[in-house]
Design goal:
Helix content is 44%, strand content 15%. The protein contains four helices and seven strands. It starts with a strand and ends with a helix.
């Protein structure tokens, strides 16, 4: 899932200009704060329990619709955020080879969403963080 925030202003002729550097820097600070918030929430969702799926030996799996259960810690360790090329958008990533299978499901397993849920749960707070940074820039 990808969220993009663009900033622009109109010149006297009514055409959009490139954002001024102070606004761009403020948006970047707000996005960075949101990235930290969203990754922390995603990690919390995976690590929090209890999970209600099947038990495999000592491992309690997650049920469909629940965030995945942590077994080795690799999934949680791989969750991070990064700026995209323009630096006016961020991407929240889980870097393990199986993260997408957990997030979206497969033909034999229903999804265990954690990234989309973390982004959606932190969206309102993330927008406030961006707004606050832009407000400070003025």
């Amino acid at each position: 899932m990808r969220f993009t925030v663009r900033t622009a202003r109109r010149n006297r002729a009514g055409r959009f200009e490139r954002p001024d550097d102070a606004i761009k820097a403020a948006v970047q600070r707000g996005l960075a704060a949101w990235g930290l918030l969203a990754t922390a929430r995603a990690k919390e969702l995976v690590l929090s329990g209890p999970k209600t799926g099947k038990v495999y030996g000592n491992h309690q799996a997650s049920a469909p619709g629940e965030p995945p259960a942590s077994d080795t810690g690799r999934l949680v360790s791989s969750i991070r955020w990064e700026f995209t090329g323009s630096r006016l958008a961020i991407r929240v990533i889980a870097g393990t080879e199986y993260a997408a299978y957990l997030e979206f499901g497969t033909s034999i397993m229903l999804p265990r969403p954690f990234l989309r849920r973390a982004i959606l749960e932190t969206e309102a707070q993330g927008r406030k963080l961006i707004d606050a940074e832009v407000y400070k820039a003025f």
